[in-house]
Amino acid sequence: MKVLVNAIACRVAGGRTVGLNFLRCYRESGFPHDLIVYAPAGVGYEELDGGRVRVEVAPPVVHQGLARPWVDHVWSRRILARHRPDVLFAMGSIAYPTRIPQVVLYHWPYAIYPEPEVWQHMSLADVVTRRVRRWLFGGRRHHAAWFAAQTETAKQRLERLWGLDNVEVIPNAVSLPPRGDRAPQTSAYADRIPDGKRALLCLTRWYPHKNLEILLELGRRIRDEKLPWVVLTTVSPGDDRAAARWVAAVDRGELGEVIVNLGSVPMEEVPGLYAASSGLLLPTLLESFTGTYVEAMHFGRPVFTSDRDFAHDVCGDVAWYFDPHDGESIRSTLARAFDDPAEMQRRVDRGLRRTAEFPEWPEVTERYVRLLERAGGQR
User: Fold this and answer.
1) How many domains does the structure of the chain reveal?
2) Same domain membership, residue 95 and residue 24
3) Domain that holds residue 272
4) pLDDT beyond 80 at 334
5) Which of 29, 78, 244, 320 is 20 to 30 A from 52 (CA-CA)?
6) Are residues 203 and 297 in the same domain?
7) What is the domain-level CATH number for residue 59?
8) Which residue from 281, 314, 319 is spatially nearest to 14, judged by alpha carbons?
9) Are 310 and 288 in contact, with CB atoms under 8 Å apart?
């Protein structure tokens, strides 16, 4: 069977991780199918070319939003006609307008979260862009033979909101570095934490749905009440203008002593960053799946996050949950947790056991392949 893998949308963050790990495990497996992969340049895909995996670099124009009609109706049709695949693996959450059987990897949460809280803080340009993508998702959903969702919550929302009956849950694997004694004992970032303070790690890029604005309110409460906490953030002001504005707001509010922004952190430094922290703090408003929760549990760190369905799906009874729109709810949740070290240790222990429940990449890769084979059999 010949499979065309469209991974052009998997170039940053979690999408890139999924794309690279799927292809890496496929190369190391004994599956008999030939994969032709169209992928973004310069983010690691070229290194996976060889054997039954053939990687073609997509032209830069495919990443331009205004080029979407050309990509979908001209460029993609050309490559489908050139390769004549038996099945298409669309890894960008939206099906392509083709009669070729396709499996769509669904990991774009905006299509299943119409709640106003998700949309009201975006710029007009962001709202328009995401509304158009949501419209495309809905209009093309019938082109997919199967959707692969990463959580049961996403599956249920796809079924309820879009009337789908062809959603398969394939849990996301998480690439975890060796734990050793839970986490390294030293970190290059330890000197950024004031003496006597507990560091709460908010490990994320700036996105509207990450709800980082609430950290400004929390930071003022920490400062004014002289609480023994500091929040570590990893926002790069060079990512976009909104990220730069958020970093400027931290400085303008004189919050630099309680919100310590580290900028972008290399992956190899992440274990040490967890070692320097006393917990993960993530006030996000929506996710399809975030490996950050699992990383924190893996390294034996408590999780403090939003009281939302996607968070409960991944964290269960391990995390402490708060109202992500209320700085006082976050403050009181943190205080309650740190005032009960015995309960905190019980939840940390449950988190360590919970990480063992998540599949590893070879298993996840096999499940994707079996779903592609089912779709190919429906040709």
Assistant:
1) 2
2) yes
3) 190-355
4) yes
5) 78
6) yes
7) 3.40.50.2000
8) 314
9) yes
| Phi, psi angles (nearest 5°) of residue 267 | -55, -35
Please give the Cα distance from 49 to 6 (Å, whole number).
15
Pairing of strands 34-39, 2-6: parallel
Place of tokens 């059999």: 377
Q: What is the distance between the alpha carbons of residues 207 and 303, in angstroms, rounded to a whole number?
A: 20
**Residue 183 within a domain:** no
Q: How confident is the model at residue 175 (pLDDT cuts 50, 70, 90)?
A: low
How many Cα atoms within 13 Å fall on the side-chain side of residue 32?
A: 2
User: Which among 295, 165, 282 has a CA at the least distance from the CA of 233?
Assistant: 282
299 CB neighbour count, 10 Å cutoff: 25
Alpha-carbon span 344 to 31, nearest angstrom = 44
Asked if residue 327 and residue 364 are part of one domain, the reply reads no
Asked whether residue 255 is domain-assigned, the answer is yes
**Mean pLDDT of the 330-350 span:** 96
What's the confidence (pLDDT) of residue 76?
A: 87
User: What is the per-residue pLDDT for 184?
Assistant: 47
How large is the average pLDDT for residues 261-269?
86
Instruction: Note the maximum CA span of the chain.
Output: 65
C-alpha 30 chain-centroid distance: 29
The amino acid that residue 287 corresponds to is: E
According to the 3-state scheme, what is the secondary structure of the chain? CEEEEECCCCCCHHHHHHHHHHHHHHHHCCCCCEEEEEECCCCCHHHHCECCEEEEECCHHHHCHHHHHHHHHHHHHHHHHHHCCCEEEECCCCCCCCCCCEEEEECCHHHHCCCHHHHCCCCHHHHHHHHHHHHHHHHHHHHCCEEEECCHHHHHHHHHHHCCCCEEECCCCCCCCCCCCCCCCCCCCHHHCCCCCEEEEECCCCCHHHCCCHHHHHHHHHHHCCCCEEEEECCCCCCCHHHHHHHHHHHHCCCCCCEEECCCCCHHHHHHHHHHCCEEEECCCCCCCCHHHHHHHHCCCCEEEECCHHHHHHHCCCCEEECCCCHHHHHHHHHHHHCCHHHHHHHHHHHHHHHCCCCCHHHHHHHHHHHHHHHHHCC
Residue 258 half-sphere exposure toward CB, CA atoms < 13 A: 18
